[in-house]
Structures
1.
Amino acid sequence: MTYIDATFKGFPGHLTPVELSQVGVQGWSLLKGHLSFPLAVLKQSALTHNLAWMQDFCNDRNLDIAPHGKTTMSPALYNKQLQAGAWGISFATVFQAGLGIRNGVERIIIANQVFQEPDLDTLSGLLTQHPKVRVYFLVDSLAQIDAIEAWRVSRASSTIFTVLIELGIEGKRTGCRDHSQAMALARRVKASAGLQLSGVECYEGALATCNHVHDQATVAALMSRVQWLANECEAENLFECDEVLLTAGGSAIFDLVAEHLTPLLSRPARGVLRSGCYLTHDHVQYRKMLKCVGERLQLTETLKPALEVISCVQSCPEPGLAFLSMGKRDVSFDMDLPVPVWRAQFNDLNTRGVPAHWEITALNDQHAYLRFDPNSREEEHPFVGMLVGSGISHPCTTFDKWRWMPVVNDDYEVVDAITIHF
């Protein structure tokens, strides 16, 4: 059993430890001040909406999803995604994949290169201990294959790893830069006793600009390379699998990838999106990107932000400036600063939107600078003790600052909780 206790930020130190499954029956209300702030929370209604929305999106296009588990590192959320219909879960490292395997995930894409000896030792051991588990990882160089084969000889290992060729973009992240390099790699995989080729992977997120013409053209070109490589590998009988995977799809322009992800092969094949941030969405970066998705698909509704960080006004030392009790230790700031969304007074049990002139302009380790118009009406001024709920930008780097998050209903009553394992 997992217990939440005083070692978890946001859990009051005077309370006795609570078993995770019992958090939702404690009767905690955030607006009544039952937990400590700052506190990152997940809104249940938005999570439910986002799970269903993305699964419908995939079903309508005959695609599958293996959402990126590195976004949350939360087994409870993986379970929700799998129950909603996810084909598997993606990860970025063997360490992360181990968390998934230990918590019942049986199909895993490690969307990264694996080649270090301790990682190969670990992955080989996990596959031996969990024979039902299928793990795919990426290869993009002959040097990587040399390292894997040297490990195999040094360990006298009989493990056969299942791999995907990664196609990359010049000047961007990992992956083969041209078709001939990728084909040479595929042939080398076929010749290796320790590897089996099962598909092709790419990552298009670096192309996203919200310029529809640009994004459509660049994604189409990238996915054309993916299909070309898959067709050539099939023609040379280089795949050694029951089902070929074609996989792509970050969280920004997944709709454009989806147009081209249906495999054009004669053998059984599966198109798999890997979007991860869709589950919680956000209030800035991905909200902007999903607005563009909605424009392209002519949708009136897409995803809803589910992740908020709640803090208190702790000081109002001068006109036009207040300080919130959250900072870089609590909330993401790598893409955009958090944005104040709502305000409340303890025991009021109602939240109100914030005035348009409120803005978080900077963060210290434990403080947020909330600027406001000192000439506005008094009722629009923050005051010491006020609760402020803030939206975030880029969920990944808020999750990694917390070991747990309460799940709340729309009245900010705690109905569940998750743990996080970065």
2.
Amino acid sequence: MLKRYENKTVDVDWLNSNFPCMMACPAHTNAGRYVALIAEGRYEEAYRFARDPNPLASICGRVCAHPCETACRRGSIDRPIAIRALKRFLTERHGPESKRPLDVNAGRGQQKLPFKIAVVGGGPVGLSAAHDLALMGYSVTIFEAAQVAGGMLYLGIPEYRLPRSVVEAQVREILATGSIDLKLNHAAGRDFTVSDLRHQGFDAVLLAVGAHRSRDLSIPGVDLDGVHKGIDFLLNVNLGYQFTIGKKVIVIGGGNVAMDVARSAAREVLRQHAAGVEQQEPSRENVEAVATREMVDVSLSALRLGAQEVHLVCLESRQEMPAALEEIAEAEEEGIILHPGLGPNRVLGENGKVAGLEVLKTRWVFDQSGRFNPAFYEGSETVLSCDTIIM
């Protein structure tokens, strides 16, 4: 007698309980499948699974926050599978940056449609949209304000975390997907308007302009010479523009961007103040702290120059800092000095230039309703001397 099976509905709850890593991924990449294929040595097939839903797989293999690993069920047994590292292994083997790239889009493109789409912005959103639209048969033109495509992948993430060659290879692969044109140095509002694009015959316009503006900090002294915004700093450094930085730098903030700024600042200290390095010896403890890192040469030189003078001030306690744990650990290993639980009160100056930052001890960061509403202990003022502040 045949056994009767019930039809089961596959809903979100079922997927979350059975494939938590896949559901945690914003692109719903089937991580479990490509991890299993790697274990079987079927690397090309594994790469196709990793790349299929994500045109920026090579990027994500290096800088993704890997929520899939947080959701990985293996973590309840011992530790999560290193999904991001395995994706990087695949892209370095078969991605556009590799010596044996696979054309994953061969045969996927649909019949060409008689419609033109304008995409304003050549960052992750604009590039991904152009890729998918081209596969659907649309003709796409990307208008990018900067002189390079990639958005904050190229302009905001430091080179040591995401090599420019990887970004460029990923962009080239996307542009080769189908009928995609890229127009650089074309800024919305300056060189064209949305109505201009419609008059030029575009049937639809996607706005993907990104977030290239830092948040302001409303404290006295932010207009002094030597106070800079974090994203402005990263944009200038990554584009190779001249950026004068002092020897004693304070970075305000505790997120991943703050970590990027602090570690980039250490490298700028190394680059700009190389004279007299022989006379400055790091402590044995600091040398041991960085000795096992792949950037040991840079970190050791930075310590000799005074990279211990790159400080990071944040409102949160060490346990509450919003930066990823590995970002905090790597920053400390490179010589960045953390000052958790402090909030900026005012910037102090001499002769129009930054001389220090006055801070207060944080009482709480979020109020009882859970809103971001920092409060500080009265009379807890402390001054940290510096010649550069990056917010």
